[in-house]
Each structure stands twice: as structure tokens, then as C-alpha cells.
Design goal:
This protein has 137 residues and is α+β, with helices and mostly antiparallel strands. It is built from 5 helices and 4 strands. The chain starts with a helix and ends in a 12-residue tail after the last strand.
């Protein structure tokens, strides 16, 4: 009987761990949605998987993480976690670049992300969303 309970607990833990793992981004909008969802949940290590990995994008993500952790109250972070993503417009620039205009149901402020195809993967390029304040190394 104890073995069944332990096995059940292990299965529950594995299922909850799998739930936290992002689905692979199947397309440009899916990549944007996965990234936004990760940020809204303050899961920046997960969000990092969805960005074009260069020094500027890593720094922009670090700035966002610091802002979330230092400037937002636990109540505000909870409201972000509970918010939903609203996609307002999708503009395909070409076969490898898409601009996604979105907001979240908590703040309702429209923003945009540039998603690019890089080495067969759709990734978010944060340099589009941030002012030019960081120079590429």
C-alpha cells in the first residue's frame, strides 16, 4: 500500500514538472506566446529559452527580471501570473520575421515583440522592443 502511495506521489510530481515545461514553439506566434507567458509567470530561466541568444537580448531579459523582482509587489506579480495574453495583431514582415502586437489582461498596455526564425527555431528578438541603450558586444 505504501508503495502505491509513493508511486502516486512521484507521478503527480512528474506531471506537475511537465506542466511547467514549455511546449516547443511550433511557429512564430507560439514562440511569442511562450515567451510572454514565461515572463508573466516570472519564470525568466524559461523565458530565456525563447529569446535569440546574444548579449543584448540577455541583458534586456536581465533588466526585465530585475524590474519584476525589485519594483513589483508580490500582489502585482500574482496579478501578472493570473493574467491572460491578448494578441491584437500579427504582422508577417517576411518568411523569417514576424511582429506580434499584444497586451495582458492585467495592465492592458499594448506592446510588441519581434520573432525571428534562427537556425530553424522561432525566437524572440528583444532588441526590437527596447530602446537602443545596450551596445552589442
Amino acid at each position: 500500500m505504501r508503495g502505491i502511495i509513493v508511486t502516486g506521489l512521484i507521478i503527480i510530481l512528474l506531471l506537475s514538472a511537465c506542466k511547467d515545461q514549455p511546449a516547443t514553439s511550433e511557429n512564430d506566434v507560439d514562440a511569442a506566446r511562450n515567451f510572454i507567458h514565461s515572463v508573466l509567470n516570472s519564470n525568466f530561466s524559461q523565458a530565456e529559452k525563447f529569446i535569440l541568444y546574444d548579449s543584448a537580448n540577455r541583458e534586456y531579459l536581465n533588466i526585465t527580471e530585475r524590474s519584476f523582482r525589485q519594483r513589483l509587489s508580490s500582489e502585482e506579480r500574482r496579478l501578472y501570473r493570473e493574467s491572460s495574453i491578448n494578441i491584437h495583431d500579427i504582422r508577417q514582415v517576411n518568411d523569417t520575421i514576424t511582429i506580434v502586437h499584444y497586451s495582458n489582461s492585467y495592465k492592458k498596455i499594448k506592446d510588441s515583440l519581434k520573432v525571428i526564425m534562427h537556425n530553424g527555431q522561432w525566437l524572440v528578438d528583444l532588441k526590437y522592443s527596447f530602446p537602443s541603450m545596450i551596445q552589442e558586444e
